[in-house]
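Blackboard transcription, Thursday session:
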Amino acid sequence: MKNRRGRALFLLLIAIGLLCAVTVAGGLLAGSAEFADFSRKNLPPCLAFPFGTDRMGRDMLARALAGLSLSIRIGAFTAVISGAVALLLGTASALLGGPVDAAISWVIDLVMGVPHILLIILISIACGKGTFGVVAGVALTHWPSLARLLRGEVLQLKQAPYIQMARRLGASWGRVLWGHFLPHLLPQFLTGMILQFPHAILHEASVTFLGFGLPPDQPAIGVILEESMAYLSTGRWWLALFPGLSLALTVALFALLGERLRLLLSPVRSQE
Amino acid sequence: MEPILNVAHLSVTFSRYGRGFSRTKLSAIEDLSLTVDPGQVAAVVGSSGSGKSLLAHAIFHILPPNSRVEGTLLYDGAPLTAHRAAEPRGRELVLIPQGVTYLDPMMKVGPQVCRGRRDPAVRARCREVLKRYGLGPDVEDLYPFQLSGGMARRVLIACAVMERPRLIVADEPTPGLDARTAQRVVGHFRELADRGAGVLLITHDLPLALSVADKIVVMHAGQTVDEISADQLQSGYGPSHPYTRALWRAMPQNGFAPPSGDLEEWLT
Amino acid sequence: MGHRLRFTARKLARMVLLLLGVSLTAFLLMNASPLDPLQTNVGQAALGAMSPEQIARLEEYWGVNTPAAERYLRWLGDALRGDFGISLLYRQPVLEVIGQRLSNSLWLMASAWVLSGALGLALGVLAGTRRGRWPDRLVRGYCLVISSTPSFWLALLLLMVFSVWLGILPIGLAVPIGAEHAGVTLLQRLRHAILPALTLSVTGVANIALHTREKTADVMERDYILFARARGETAIVRRHVLRNVALPALTLQFASIGEIAGGSVLVEQVFSYPGLGQAAVSAGLGSDMPLLLGITVVTAAMVFGGNLAADLLYGVIDPRIRRGAAGT
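(Written on the board underneath:)
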């Protein structure tokens, strides 16, 4: 039987490489994504333009890659911010307890009570829509589940007999944090953050699609798909199919990445 | 007499991942042999981690999928394959597990003892069996979380004797019980053996085993180290193996003596 | 019984408090917006068609001359009396617009809720009881694909296939274009709701199936399943697994209300289905603050109501809580 753990790590590296390649390629292609040539407009997919061209003769492959690159960068940025918020509020809630804990738990319930998409729209409006609006919206809505998870972990650790023992035996808080809390929390935190990527990317695209996110002059996937709506009934299927498909693939890669990482880092499940 | 259960050179191994990418085989039972005759209580005694419970799980074919079983398991003279175990399991061949966690927390006691059958004959039998172990009809209507430790064990025994068992495997049925309750629980096994069933009692408690068993099988680190009749062991002459001697000497009535030199010699 | 009542009262109080929090948050967010509704709408048909009193009231709500705290309190006072203000876009009381839109959305959301719940439970139990084998791989693959797919893109695809290529289902709207509201048959309504409901269900299944799978796999490793197998029980899934998965599944099912409400915003937009979600988008784009605020509060009330229902049902179903409360 082949070694599964080795295979999982190999897949992880491929996924990371692929995502990096898309990010870089999309960044480099930003120019050609904007390049309009009316002599080649509305071309269905062919060898020169595998994703076809749109009404202004723009290469849809370049546009899709540029859009993905934008999505990944925004996804990474927002996931890191919401991860930091989650870490801060989750551990503060568990360590400080009392009214702080009650207040943070209440805010978590509050944020979870409004569907993400609606809350992102509200935050985006508060920030005047646009790139800043959607980034703030996505970053400020995705932290509660991770914060709740980390809070639970820290609470459990705080009660754990071996932590109490370490404290009684004279270990400083710093030593306990470094030696016991960190090894427990770091895998949870990292996988939790990576698993936020897919949600963040999807929500950014959704909100942009609805018109509350990235401005129409950006080659974002949400913008591309919103434009494609107008050409659905005229049969230009490639405008919607390929950009959406590539977004789904990117998100799936991130989801797989997080899932694999979780399995590898979890002591119980890594035996499977 | 033909033994009801015959285990010969049984081994159970697990494969698991070690550090990094290495895969290791973990041997839990290495070379285990024992027999149980009808009407006999055979006690398997060993410290925790000696692989006792896995013996029970192997007999019932409920080991986890990453395990491997080798050696022979004969039930009533014929190999006990997974296919053949399916028939007597729960009827002739019954397991009495450790405690309340083996009862479905969301199901009342009555239906669990009846295994879900609702016909009046089964329910009458259930009532009768519970009564035999001092549990009133009201117990049928309780959920497992409402049972005390002793009640839970008695419910589990009731589960086992709903039908006519020929081989009863009791896997550590006494931890967490006070001495008197534990004594009563193992006393029930003696009764069952006196009615003709073979009983395999798996425990770490040698004095308790000695009080009911006909035969003691001593296990250490996955191996049978000694098989000796209870009378021989009781009299103090019999124990030939250093590990058995050490176990016997450590019993309260024998003065909690620490292991002597020959055990260390054997262990190294 | 007193215990149960106290529990309910505490949960209700918490829900009311959370709703207040939601309305205040939404109000503050809109208040912070640089997009001033009166500015955006000046000269537009919406504002032009309003009576002077309506405009005067609007200015009271959104004008800069009153402090935010006072405006919120006034809104709250009105809202408690059942007046959520006037929608700028629809020139109707907000509550009327919401009621109308919600009755359209309710069809959609209820069918998606039931369908995704039932299917998700079935798939999750199937995968969890056969962990690592092919049914599990298939279900997990499906969940990965679906949860990675933007729901609005899936809606676009379905629209392309069923409405444009095959032409068997209508492109959008809850009723045929130009039809009188009263003359719409149930069949027509259904035909228009099929694709949106399908999209919502298909996407909703993934989350429920994955979580149910985790719970099922967890239950499968418990001692009582081992014991049931050792006793030769045959209907283990029906007798033990479903029974023990039921409670977490219930929580999941009620927690999915929020997700379905969120999904309906996108799906309704693609299918131009005149429901609550589409109204939320229009309100947001048109800076119709009273309507957006109203929709936010109503949606949050649905989510919190779902949580409350789950909590209360738990107490009825879980014997540990039920008997615990009885004092045995």
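Lecturer's comment: DSSP finds twelve helices and no strands in chain A.
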